[in-house]
Amino acid sequence: MSKITAHINAIATAVPGQDVHHAFIGWAEARIHDPRERALFRRMADRSGIGHRWSVLPVGADGGSPVGEGGFYAVDPLPSTAARMALYAEAAPRLAQEAIAGLGPIGAISHLVVASCTGFVAPGIDQIIAAALGLGGGVERTLIGFMGCYAAVAALRTAHHIVRSEPEARVLVVTVELSSLHLQSVDAIEPLLSMLQFGDGAAAALVTADARGLALDRFFSATLPDSGGLIRWTIGDQGFAMHLSGEVPARIGRALADPGFVDRLLGPHDAADIGAWAVHAGGRSILDAVEAGLGLADGALAASRAVLADYGNMSSATLMFALKAMIAADGAANGIAVAFGPGLAAEGFGFRRLA
Question: What is the pTM of this model?
Fold first, then answer.
């Protein structure tokens, strides 16, 4: 008896309307007192590969950014975690619903899997989304939280297992992240460069046994040794504080340059047969490290670099934006999707784009 294959049939995405990238750069530069460090920050911002990052935060009273006059962050001290979570409870379900609407008619849904790492609310965001869609109390819900950038892989892996065990299942997978809720009052270069990466976004995917879109293959996980402290996500009194060490790209690059590690990660594979790559756009240096470590051709990560340029790092939603581009591309291809996050861990899966 042949195994059932789960497929991502369609992906739709949504971002808020306010571009905060350049406003943040101005805010951050004003906090850096040393001229040499300020110049370094500007060079790093210019080299980031990011042109836009979007935020759910309300426009300031002066019609400007959330760090401007009358904006959400134009207070001292910055808003409490409670205030940020109140905004999450309103804005996250709304942005998620925008992404779901982009799928068009989705028919009957048997399971709902939601990944969201940038906020907490109870009843959960999964329940709020289910109620807004009229799914009813009988829909089976799974909420995946606080895993960070690779939470999309966990959500799709859950959908994969559901469809393989219940071939008639129609699983709605949602990722929604409001990273801009977590601006921190710091003046050191490293955390400012971490915050420079992040924006808000949401994605929705329909996963079924219907043979269209991307066929999901072997899922994999690996933790890089002696790296647990390189990516940390701490809940504080003023939002969630992200620590993203500058060592992360080099550590990823060294691991991927080891054929033994890559074989353990991807299993038996022929590199020449992989024609599509969906890599979480965690930052330009991380994409560069993946490209160099795996010896990929120029342009192999074009979809991921385009996501980074247009939206920045949207935590778990980011990989879904790249996978959307995979579905939209022409021709059949074998592909690999991979994301990196706290641990330092790599999570991913193989896929095949159907012709």
Answer: 0.95
Which among 180, 182, 185 is positioned nearest to 76, based on CA atoms? 185
Where does residue 179 fall: left (phi above 0), alpha (psi -120 to 50 degrees), or beta otherwise? alpha
Q: What is the DSSP string of 69-127?
A: TTSTT-SSSPPPHHHHHHHHHHHHHHHHHHHHHTT------SEEEEE--S---SS-HHH
d(CA 71, CA 59): 6
Q: Positive or negative, the Cα torsion across 277, 280, 285, 289? A: negative
Tokens 């982009």, residue located: 102
In the predicted model, is pLDDT for residue 1 greater than 60?
Answer: no
- Out of 117, 149, 207, 323, which one is annotated catalytic? 149
- Contacts of 16 by beta carbon, 8 Å cutoff, 6+ apart: 54, 55, 56, 91, 95, 200
Segment (H or E) for 252? helix 248-256
d(CA 255, CA 160) in angstroms, rounded, equals 27
Please enumerate in sequence order all residues whose Cβ is within 8 A of that of 281, keeping only pairs 6 or more positions apart, or say none: 287, 304, 305, 307, 308, 312, 313, 318, 321, 322
129 phi and psi angles, rounded to 5 deg: -65, -45
How far apart CA 343 and CA 270 sit, in angstroms, is 28
The values of phi and psi at residue 315, to 5°, are 50, -130
Instruction: Report whether pLDDT(125) > 90.
Output: yes
C-alpha to C-alpha distances, 208 to 4, 160, 326, nearest whole angstrom: 10, 8, 17
Q: Positive or negative, the Cα torsion across 247, 250, 253, 257?
A: negative
Active site residue 149: yes
Report residue 76 CA to chain centroid gap: 30
Dist CA 354 CA 326 (whole Å): 10
Tell me which residue of 339, 327, 325, 321 sits closest to 99, measured CA to CA.
321
Q: pLDDT digits over 139-184, tens only?
A: 999 999 999 999 999 999 999 999 999 999 999 999 999 999 999 9
The mean per-residue pLDDT over the stretch 73-99 comes to 95
Best CA proximity match to 184, nearest among 85, 89, 80, 282: 80
Strands 274-279, 333-341: pairing kind: parallel
